[in-house]
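Incident log, entry 3
Record: Exonuclease domain-containing protein (190 residues)
Problem: checksum mismatch between cached and fresh output.
Input:
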Amino acid sequence: MEIYISTDIEADGPIPGPHSMLSLGAAAYLPDKTLVSTIEINFETLPGATGHPETMEFWSRYKKAYQYTRVDTQSPEVGMQQYVDWVEGLEGKPVFVAYPAGFDFLFVYWYLIQFVGRSPFSHSALDMKTFAMSLMGKGYRESTKRNMPRHWFDRHPHTHKALDDAIEQGALFCNMLADWQERPSNSKLL
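Fresh output:
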């Protein structure tokens, strides 16, 4: 059985290393949209890393959300080990899910290799925008949230707090998955 790990990160720049992951939130969902477990970790910034000017301009518009990332911070070594232990403690084969996976997985994978030495996801991440593209039969650039069917969205806030956004996006993914499962050729796959 697969378990879908909707993961959202907040960062102070576009790439890890020169910039830091500030917060990680993850919500583990079963295919039927059962929320099994969550985790949220705020991180100390990396030594020598700085906030990117454009990203810090973004955070200036979301000051409360940024301040939230600075509460109860942990070292990347401790925090990422907690994340791995949490993922590996779940029943089922973990699948990393994000919107967009290209950003969130970049940080998570880099931090996993840098501070834990391995990834419970191997090298794989499921990108929700790509999944939406295939479901909607539209081009990638047209497969944005504003063009997605309304029934895919539950009433979860998008707060720029990592756990809130991971829960929101995990529910979105499960609703997309339900549509995919309704297709006759896919009903037997899960």
